[in-house]
């Protein structure tokens, strides 16, 4: 259960001096230092971070030397916290509320946010920006007065952060912080992809591409796949096929619902799509690409059943990557190919549902946390993530 008695102090409308892990240079260890966090402006909220978890997207952008990479920056986008103060125009939450920040906006006002057909806010569209969403300014400076850039509108590697109200969701206080933070990005995305975007039905067959590749991508691929497998399990899929070159991941994947495994290196003279089509009598009902590789998107699409097969892309590919699909194939196969930012979830309405499902012991958030550390150990956590030695690492601020 979250501690709602966390001391905040009389800091409203004042700058706060606190500790942050600052990315000063691409790929270099984060620097634990004191920073200044400005008060929230209109439609903004300043929150005291209770704990933050690491996502491989933090690693990806931490390595980027060129835009959208930029430095110095406060990374982090999976977290949970307590509202310290609110700016003008904020009326849906108040000081002391327990909240989770999300990188994708849910303004509740635009045509997309009012529709059940999309979670892509058009008032505050998603982008990898170094600023606040409503104006290109920062709420962070170091002790020398230098601007520190934001990350994905959250910047949770700091004891306090300022987040737009459209990016905040109020939580039930019964879910503990070291589990609630997982709903800020990863678990929500994976479950949402199966639940909202694919709308997997009971009895369906599912194929997931990317259970843990080689080298630095080991954790990333398994991270997304485990979440999708959990979502497929919750939706009642009876056959969940994992595709990957690392057979060791199959045993771990079973915990999240995986029933079958295909190693592309052991397929001999058949393609992965041929094998999946044989296993599922014509193709999987739903395929999920979790690596971020155009050739795998094409293979996933080929693995889908004609007529109603649906391929959902979750992996982030290199900028400019192109798909090669013939027009005739698209026309005659009748399949669907779609992307799923944040799994298609609307944060303010869907995250509370996931919280309830966790409290009802349906969503197994506990299984995803392999490590818990103090915030000061963040560089150690980064190394575990890079080396593929952890599934989920949660960092406690206090």
Automatic annotation (TrEMBL):
Domain of life, per lineage: Eukaryota
Domain Alcohol dehydrogenase-like C-terminal span(s) in chain numbering: 229-354
Pfam families cross-referenced by the UniProt entry: ADH_N, ADH_zinc_N
Organism lineage string: Eukaryota, Viridiplantae, Streptophyta, Embryophyta, Tracheophyta
Cofactor(s), by name: Zn(2+)
Sequence similarity: Belongs to the zinc-containing alcohol dehydrogenase family.
Stored InterPro entries: ADH-like_C, ADH-like_N, ADH_Zn_CS, GroES-like_sf, NAD(P)-bd_dom_sf
Alphabetical UniProt keywords: Metal-binding, Oxidoreductase, Zinc
Domain named Alcohol dehydrogenase-like N-terminal: residues: 43-171
Organism: Spinacia oleracea
Xref: SUPFAM superfamilies: GroES-like (SSF50129), NAD(P)-binding Rossmann-fold domains (SSF51735)
Protein name as annotated: Alcohol dehydrogenase-like 7 isoform X1
């Amino acid at each position: 259960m979250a501690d709602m008695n966390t001391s905040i102090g009389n800091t409203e409308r004042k700058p706060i001096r606190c500790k942050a892990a600052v990315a000063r240079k691409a790929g270099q260890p984060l620097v634990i230092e004191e920073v200044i966090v400005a008060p929230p402006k209109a439609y903004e909220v300043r929150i005291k971070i209770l704990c933050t978890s690491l996502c491989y997207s933090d690693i990806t952008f931490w390595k980027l030397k060129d835009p959208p990479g930029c430095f110095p920056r406060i990374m982090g986008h999976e977290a949970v916290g307590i509202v310290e103060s609110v700016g003008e125009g904020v009326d849906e939450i108040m000081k002391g509320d327990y909240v989770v920040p999300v990188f994708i906006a849910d303004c509740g006002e635009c045509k997309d946010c009012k529709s059940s057909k999309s979670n892509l806010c058009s008032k505050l569209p998603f982008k990898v920006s170094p600023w606040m969403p409503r104006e290109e300014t920062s709420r962070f400076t170091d002790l020398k007065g230098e601007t520190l850039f934001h990350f994905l509108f959250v910047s949770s590697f700091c004891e306090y952060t300022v987040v737009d109200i459209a990016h905040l969701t109020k939580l039930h206080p019964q879910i503990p912080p070291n589990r609630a933070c997982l709903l800020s990005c990863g678990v929500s995305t994976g479950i949402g992809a199966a639940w909202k975007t694919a709308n997997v039905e009971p009895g369906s067959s599912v194929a997931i591409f990317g259970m843990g590749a080689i080298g630095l991508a080991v954790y990333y691929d398994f991270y997304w796949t485990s979440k999708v497998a959990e979502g497929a399990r919750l939706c009642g899929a009876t056959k969940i096929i994992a595709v990957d070159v690392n057979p060791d991941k199959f045993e771990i994947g079973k915990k999240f619902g995986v029933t079958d495994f295909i190693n592309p290196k052991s397929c001999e003279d058949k393609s992965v799509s041929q094998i999946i089509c044989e296993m599922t009598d014509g193709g999987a009902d739903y395929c999920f690409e979790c690596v971020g590789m155009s050739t795998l998107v094409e293979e996933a699409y080929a693995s889908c059943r004609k007529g109603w097969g649906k391929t959902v892309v979750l992996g982030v590919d290199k900028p400019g990557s192109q798909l090669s699909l013939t027009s005739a194939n698209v026309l005659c196969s009748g399949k669907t190919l779609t992307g799923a930012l944040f799994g298609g979830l609307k944060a303010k309405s869907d995250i509370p549902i996931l919280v309830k499902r966790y409290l009802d012991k349906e969503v197994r958030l506990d299984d995803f946390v392999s490590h818990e550390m103090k915030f000061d150990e963040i560089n150690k956590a980064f190394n575990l993530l890079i080396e593929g030695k952890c599934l989920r690492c949660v960092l406690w601020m206090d």
